[in-house]
Amino acid sequence: MDEAIIITGSSRGIGAATALLASRRNYAVCVNYRSNRDAAQQVVDAILKQGGRAVAIQADVSVESDVIRLFDSCEESLGKPRAVVNNAGVLESQMRFEHMQVDRWRRVMDTNIIGTFLCAREAVRRMSTRNGGAGGAIVNLSSGAARLGSPGEYVDYAATKGAIDTLTVGLAKEVAAEGIRVNAVRAGFIYTDMHASGGEPGRVDRLKDTIPMRRGGSPEEVSEAILWLLSDAASYVTGTFIDVTGGR
Asked: Is 157 a catalytic residue?
């Protein structure tokens, strides 16, 4: 039987590409979404069309009860998850740090940090051999911004991804002997509609000449790195990162 995978924020962009590829790699896919049910269902329908198994489950990853329900619902529908991809993330309008407000920071941190922490915790509770689980793998979505800081635009977003990097290293060491691998992918300038959330849909094209490869990346290129880290080919890999950034 296909192993179950939870991919947060998988109704669009990198998450949706990862869901489709995971299905092709014989996972039963839990497509998580916060608000866009129609988009999530389209991803599910595409998976079903290619002969896979999938369900769409609504949950706000920043809400503890939602995350617990997400994992329980996945187990009821598809089986206990053996893989979790913490992809859900948000950013807000481009802005200098001095103009940012506390409410903005809380929104970004609640989803990007607390959401990832909650999902990673629930994954460990269910996967750890220490807790009677069968092991598994977690991949966190970080960003090249964690290294570069995103000055003048998204210092707060970059800081949340720095927190995800630290979580990845610490948690990987904590659960390595319990059958769980924890890694992260740092995505660079990728063509997704997330940039529109920051007020500049064409941001990748504006900045592509600063990338050594002189182009932006695709969600599918990021998903390939994610699925490799989840696979048996990466069985001796934990606590590390793949930069999908075009060399930047």
From this structure: yes
